[in-house]
Amino acid sequence: MNMNGEIVAKINSFLAEEFEVEPEKIVAEGNLKETLDLDSLDYIDLVVVIENNFHFKVKPGDFLHIHTFSDFYDYIISRVNSKQLV
Questions:
Q1: Are the C-beta atoms of 45 and 18 separated by less than 8 Å?
Q2: What is the pTM of this model?
C-alpha cells in the first residue's frame, strides 16, 4: 500500500470509530457531512481528531470546499505531504 493509501485507511479507521459509522459507508464519492451526520460540534471533534492523528493545524476555512470523502482525503494528503517537505 502506498503512503496515500495508508493515509486513507487511517482516516477511514478513525472516522468509523469516532463517528460510529460502519466502515463500508465511507466511500470516496460519499457526502462527508451526511454520511457522518455532522453538526457544528462534530466538526470541532473532527478537527481535533485530524490534528491529533496527522499533527497539523486545521484552519477555519479549510472545510469550506470539502464535500465528499475524496475531498477530505485530498485535503489531508496534501497537508501531510506539504508538512513533510518543510
A1: yes
A2: 0.91
Q: Which residues pair with 68 in a beta bridge?
A: 31
Q: Provide the residue range defining the domain that includes 38.
A: 3-85
CATH number at residue 32: 1.10.1200.10
**pLDDT tens column, 25-57:** 999 999 999 999 999 999 999 999 999 999 999
Based on its alpha-carbon atoms, the radius of gyration of the chain, rounded to whole angstroms, reads 12
Do 72 and 62 contact (CB within 8 A), yes or no? no
Task: Please identify which residue in the block is written with the cell numbers 469550506.
Answer: 64
| 30-57 burial: b if 16+ Cβ within 10 Å, else e | bebeebbebeeeeeeebbebbeebbeee
Per-residue pLDDT at 1 exceeds 80: no
Q: Domain count of the chain?
A: 1
Cell of residue 31, nine digits:
457526502
